[in-house]
Structures are given as C-alpha cells and as structure tokens.
Amino acid sequence: MSTARTPEFQLNDWVQHRSREVDAALNRLLPKATTRPATIHKAMRYSIFAGGKRMRPALLLAAAEACGGGIKPALPLACAIECIHTYSLIHDDLPAMDNDDFRRGKPTNHKVFGEGIAVLAGDALLTQAFEIAAGCDAWPRYSHRDLVLEIARASGSLQLIAGQVADLEGEGRDLSVAELKYIHERKTSALLCASVRLGGMSANCTPAQLKALTDFGYNVGLAFQVIDDILDVTQTTEKLGKTAGKDVAAQKATYPRLVGLDKSRKIAAQLTKRAFDALKPFKGRAIALEALAHYLLHREH
Amino acid sequence: MSTARTPEFQLNDWVQHRSREVDAALNRLLPKATTRPATIHKAMRYSIFAGGKRMRPALLLAAAEACGGGIKPALPLACAIECIHTYSLIHDDLPAMDNDDFRRGKPTNHKVFGEGIAVLAGDALLTQAFEIAAGCDAWPRYSHRDLVLEIARASGSLQLIAGQVADLEGEGRDLSVAELKYIHERKTSALLCASVRLGGMSANCTPAQLKALTDFGYNVGLAFQVIDDILDVTQTTEKLGKTAGKDVAAQKATYPRLVGLDKSRKIAAQLTKRAFDALKPFKGRAIALEALAHYLLHREH
After folding, report:
1. Which chain A residues touch B145 with a CB distance below 8 Å?
2. Which of A138, A162, B182, B284 has its CA 20 to 30 A from that of A202?
C-alpha cells in the first residue's frame, strides 16, 4: 500500500494491523474448513482468504475510529461486509456472468471447486454475512434491525445486484455516462457507503456523522470505480492480479472509453475532493479515512 | 389439496385464504416488475409467482395460529421463508447443479432469463428475505436478532446449503441411509423447522411451544422428503409438475432405492406420527398444523 498524505500517520502499519484483526475474526466467525460438508467451507475460505485487500473492512474500521469507536464492536460488521463483497466476486466471476478465470492472481472459485459449489459458496457467504451481523453486539442508537437492513439494502436488487444486472445488460452496448454512473453507484458505492455507515453505527455515531460518512462513502465508491476503469487500460495483468484489458476486449462501457483518460482522472480527483470535504466535520479524527481515500486515488493495482 | 382429518375443518378453504394473503403480501414486499433494473425484478417475481404450493408459509401461519397468534405479524416472516425457498429452487435448478428445465410445470428461471440473471435472481431473493425479516414488526419475547438468526442458520452452510452440497456430492455414489437422512434433514427439515418456529415466534410463543414446533417441523420435514422420493418413482411428470423419474435416471440415492417402497412408506408414516405427537401440548389448537401434516403424508404431487 502506498504512503499516506500525513507523514505522522503510517497507513501501511495501520492497514496491516487491521487486516490481521479482520483475518483473525473471519477465521473465528466462518465454519472451519473441516466442518461437514468440508467442500463448501473450503470453498468459502478459499475466496475469503484469497489475498483480498480488505478495503471495505479497512474503511469500516476507519469510520468507526473517526466516530470515536473501538475496533471490537466494528470487527464483526467488517467481516459481514467482507463476506458480502467476496460472495459478489465469486458470483460475478462465474462463466454465466463475467467469466473470469483469475482473481487477485489466483484461479477463481469455480475454476477450483466447479460451478455448482461456487454458486453455493457465494450463497453461503451471503447468508453468513447476515448471521454475523445479527449475532454481533448491538448498540443503544442502532439495533440489529438497523445493521441487517443496512447490509440487505446495500446488497439487494436495488443496489449491488442492480449494478451487476445493469453491467451484464450493458455489455457490447453503447452506454451513456449517466448509465455508467448508475452502474458504478450500485456495483461499488453502495457497499462502500454501507461499510463506512456500519463503522459509524458500531461507534454509536450521531445522525450528522452518519450523513457525513454516507457522502464520503458514496464519493469514494464512485472514485474507486472510475480508477478501476482507468487501471484496466493502463496496467498489466501481472500488476493487477486479474486479467487486464478485459473491459476493452469485452467492449465494456468505461469512463476512459466514454470520456477519455484525462477526463476520467479529473472526475476521480473531483470525487475524491468531495469525499475529503465530507470528512471536514470530523476535524482531524478521520485521519485513517483520509489516508485510505488518498491511497484509493493513487493506487496502481 | 386433499381434505383434512377433522370434518369441521376445511383445509382447502384455509389454505386458499392464506395463499391469497401470502401472495398479496409478497406482491407488496417485492420490488415491482417495472422497477429498474426490470429484468431482475421480473425474474424474482417469475419464480415467486410460479404456482408454488406455499407449503412453508402455510406451516408458518398454522404454527402462529396454534400459539394463539394472528396472521398479520406472521405474514412478513412467511414471505421471507418463501423467498428463501424460491431462491434455493432457482439455484438448485441451474445447469451446474440439478440441471432442471421444468419446475411446477413451467420453464425454470434460467431457461427463461438465462443463467446469469437466474443466479442473481436467487441472490436477490435471499437478500430480500433478510430485508423483510429485519423490516417486520418485532415482539417482546423475540427480537429481530432472533428472527434473522433463525433464517440465517436454517439456510446457511450447515443446514440448507449443506444439504444441497451433500446432495450434489452424493450423485452417482452409493449412500447409506444415515447419509441420506443427513441430506433430508438439511435440504428440507431445516427450513420447515424454521418456518413453524418463526410462526411461533410471531405469536410470541413460550419456550415449550417453540420446542414442540421444532420437533413437529423436524419430523414433518423428513416425512415430506421421504414422500418426495416416493412420488418421484410412482408419479408422472404431468402430475408432479416437474420431471418425474429424475432421481432414478440420475441414480440418486433415495429412500425407495435404499430401503424399498413399502419401508419408505412406513418410515414416512412413523415420522408423521412423531410430528402429531409433538402437537399434543397444543390440545386441539394446532388443528391447521395437523391437517397440513395429513395433507403432506397423503399428497400425490
């Protein structure tokens, strides 16, 4: 991970420490690889521990910190979000969808376990997310109902799944910038938004803080996806850890394709500025969130 | 539907009335078919309104009645369970799993909408179930946490999904009766059990009532599946509304294959007796549940 803006704050150390905590929590919360039927638990764990950057958990834990909360109540929610993210990757990679053979430099779930088990491993991780969210400690201002609804809405047919549907239907077709934005808002912003909101909820945040986190998550999410589009055309498969140039090959609508590379970079920078502006009310307590946003804008893979 | 044991109680009327209520509630709770992206909502609704028998909602509402509860607080939970059931059918029917072209006499979801959308429609219904369960009214004795955990556990990798995995892995292989029972407990009993337990919870039932409903659901579930096995070898495709003789063709382990038809019928009868015994503490208030159990044992499709 690249270095953060603020010299005193070491994003690398911060992220590494959190990633270890998230991995340990996921290891505790998921059924063991030997639990019957072992195949499904091996498949769930294969994708969960496939070297993901834990970006959503990091954002969630950083949002909790910004609201004065600790890591403990935020951890299960970070795990729930990572389960949702991983399920969506497993299903998106299926031959009937994006048909990806590699993800983070490793064979995709269905290449290792077969399509049937890959569908079920995704289903199981989606279900596990709700079991984890409903099973975690709740706080006075936010109930389990709030937490479960937050996850369900962000990942349901009006958000995360809507994005994937629109993405599938947009393949090989000319999309407008508005249509592309619709896809990005749903495929990426929805879950990033839910991540930082859940972090805030775990810290028993105020309604004003929740609003600020929503604005931050929405804009970081859009920026993240614009950059993903940019990296697909500017980076190699090796560096990305997934097949590069796929969007171009599939004639997918992307920001670089629709508005050019320079304008795409400007849009990403503008969205990140909006994200930073959203953090102003935290007056310096959102240092990890700020550093993460910087990393997201300047990342190279 | 066949007639019930008690002459005064008309199961047909009871079920028809409840089915209409469940259909109306599902229609209210699911996004409209025109809501963007329309494809996914059409696909969700196609399978939800494909003529299912609403057996799980019926059991849930009957359990609520047995505990003195009304239909209103039980209805959203009945819809949530039907969403889970329907999602599992859509995914089970996929080419990578059971590869079924027909379900209830209609083309399966992926035959109409394609595999990609069918995977997503299943995902969306699974997610919708939790949104509905978390969004419904809660009761003093049972919180949203209880309701969501009940659904998540019954449909997770240790229960419903475990059953499908074991089923997939058992194809073309000789299974023991114990292995077959393991599959049936998970593929069918788990969700039927959760259905009646949620019905009880919606009626704010006592712990003793919850225990009785658990025993009832477990045994009815096993009986239901043994009968499904029996019907596959004794009925026609037309009457079943799905391809008959598939289990035999796929050399699937079934009760008739492992222990013969007569013994299978005896096992089903014995399980139903245990289910009836579980209802004794309700002292005549579980009249709809009893009638449903009779119907399940004597059904012909």
Report:
1. 134-135, 138, 144
2. A162
